[in-house]
Amino acid sequence: MEIGTVYEQLPILETDRLLLRKITLQDAEDMFEYTSNPTVSKYVSWEPHRSLTDTRGYIHFVLQQYTLHRLAPWGIELKENNKLIGTINFVAWQPRHKTAEIGYALSELYWNKGFITEAAQAVLSFGFTKMNTIRIEARCLSDNIASQRVMEKNGMTLEGTIRKGLFIKGKHRDIKLYSILKDEFEATHPIC
Questions:
Q1: Do 108 and 37 contact (CB within 8 A), yes or no?
Q2: Are 177 and 159 in contact, with CB atoms under 8 Å apart?
Q3: Distance between CA atoms of residues 13 and 175, nearest Å
Q4: Looking at CB atoms within 10 Å, which of 88, 120, 178, 184 has the fewest?
Q5: What is the pLDDT of residue 1?
Q6: pLDDT at 50
């Protein structure tokens, strides 16, 4: 299984409330709304976007990744209003080892409503069925309780803490590592 084969045409994934789809330049204002929020960027490696130019630059990078058939994020669109409220993607994939890692970001306005849990379930299902993975992991800063809850709600198991595993925003941070195996996911989630 090759990355380019799977990502030649990033498919739309649909859940009850969300569409996971390619990001476009028309999403710039919606994306800037949450990427400029310091509360959202508190638990990720990137700094808050300072202007729409920053956001458009990121979107241009993503569009290039789509063109090159590389790992790239899905935009998380809320069906009820067609608003982009976040992103979710595979930040790493090792086809030879049949492993991958997911990551996500969500507008603070939509926290604690189950949207990332719902999106992650769809992406995990995609990873296990279309990417032929047997293990998917996710990492978060040790103080990011909300992200830990997303992983736990999707049946992921805490494997441990990677002490001082990431240097971001001027300091070394502890990282929690979670994972789920294909058979564990299939036992508790319907495969799409």
A1: yes
A2: yes
A3: 29
A4: 184
A5: 55
A6: 96
